[in-house]
Amino acid sequence: MTLRSLDAAIVGATLTLAAGSGGCYSGEQLIEQARNRAIRTRLDEVKLGTFRVTLPPEDGGDMSEIDITVYGEAARYRVADLEEELAEKAPLLGDLTTRALRDVAHNELTDPNLKKLRQRLLSTVNGVLEGEPIKSIGFHEVRFMRH
Fold first, then answer.
1. pLDDT at 91 over 50
2. How far is Cα 138 from Cα 118, in angstroms, rounded to an integer?
């Protein structure tokens, strides 16, 4: 066997091995994994409740009232179990959410995105639920009134 034929044999063997090892993955399994990942990352809204809270006057000013409907976003695949847990823990969750809203400072309500309020409610809700399933907090309806 000459050097040139030995090189050709090595290249041929390498190509054969490379072509053979290309079939080590399943296209169907890759698609299924991508679908599962997409399903697990989709978020759905879960209603957390409607709350009406009167805030005490700040610095001798007017009293303020918050009327708000709160929802949380959670992974779609967990929504059914989450709704059951929310039903079980509704009294505790309602009480803690009302308390969190009563602790809101008036200046938090001036933020157009209500970032501090969202974070406060997210911490409150996830503190009650197992595994911190709520990814973000949103509002369907928000009204602020001064008395």
1. yes
2. 7
